[in-house]
Write a structure and sequence with these properties.
270 residues; alpha/beta; type ii restriction endonuclease, domain 2; 6-stranded mixed sheet
């Protein structure tokens, strides 16, 4: 039974599948060549393995995960942003269009802004985490929002953070040209509060989170195993280790790892 009243089941499932598909080439299997595409740091791997008391399988798997994860945040940003295209009164502009806003929320009945009255449009800039903007980026975003308020006196601008420090809908204060600035219609809003505002349901984001694991699992199964990677890095490292004239298995694999980064260094090249 579908319990989310603010989004259709079909739309939600299709959005989950589209997000999974965005993972794209990151779901491709890793062989040794791809693993070492940007040349790994063998010294770091040796330290990590020893200090964390990990097996070679674990440390290689962790490194592969790290490499995949580096660009996955963009895909999750896609999930957070584009889900709002299925929610009433929300519009997600194509990338770079309509002012470059991530989400535009319009409500003809009015949108109550804490301590700032009522507006009919909210322009949204979304961020995955509260600490992803440096001061220059924050200043640029604030100025963009100021300009929007100058052009439209019936709107508010939100910086919506998926991972915020607190559940909040507060006046955003930041620094522009070394001066502290703020405006009651430019706000810093956590994702749960934004969901609550646009859906009219206080725990809407909680509801999404509760149903998300089962829907993702179902969606992955529908891909019929085509997205499950089969990494061969550890097997290839073991093959290289067997060619080393070293009795210790641990050291022979370590030498195979060293060769990835130091293969043409003095001593290793022999």
């Amino acid at each position: 039974m579908w319990n989310l009243s603010f989004i259709k089941e079909e739309d939600f499932i299709n959005h989950i599948k589209a997000t999974i598909e965005k993972y794209g080439e990151k779901l491709e299997s890793y062989d040794l060549k791809r693993f070492n595409k940007n040349i790994i740091d063998p010294i770091k791997l040796i330290f990590d393995k020893t200090v964390y008391q990990s097996s070679w399988e674990e440390i290689v798997s962790n490194e592969i995960f790290r490499q995949r994860d580096k660009s996955n945040n963009n895909d999750i940003g896609y999930f957070h942003q584009r889900i709002f295209q299925y929610i009433k009164n929300c519009h997600v502009p194509p990338n770079g269009e309509e002012g470059g806003w991530d989400v535009i929320y319009k409500n003809p009945n009015g949108i109550e802004i804490p301590n700032a009255g009522t507006v009919h449009t909210v322009y949204v800039e979304m961020k995955n985490k509260h600490n992803t903007m440096n001061s220059a980026s924050a200043g640029k975003t604030f100025i963009k929002m100021q300009n929007q308020l100058l052009n439209d006196d019936d709107c508010a601008c939100f910086l919506v953070e998926a991972i915020a420090q607190h559940s909040q809908n507060i006046k955003w204060e930041t620094t522009v040209d070394k001066k502290k600035v703020g405006h009651k219609l430019i706000r810093r809003v956590s994702l749960d509060q934004f969901y609550a505002l646009v859906t009219g349901q206080e725990d809407a984001f909680y509801q999404v989170c509760m149903i998300l694991p089962s829907v993702i699992e179902k969606a992955v199964k529908e891909f019929e195993g085509t997205i499950v990677p089969h990494d061969t890095v550890i097997d290839e490292l073991r093959e290289l280790a067997c060619k080393q004239d070293i009795k210790s298995e641990n050291l022979s694999i370590a030498m195979a790892v060293y060769m990835l980064g130091f293969g043409n260094y003095i001593g290793f090249s022999k």
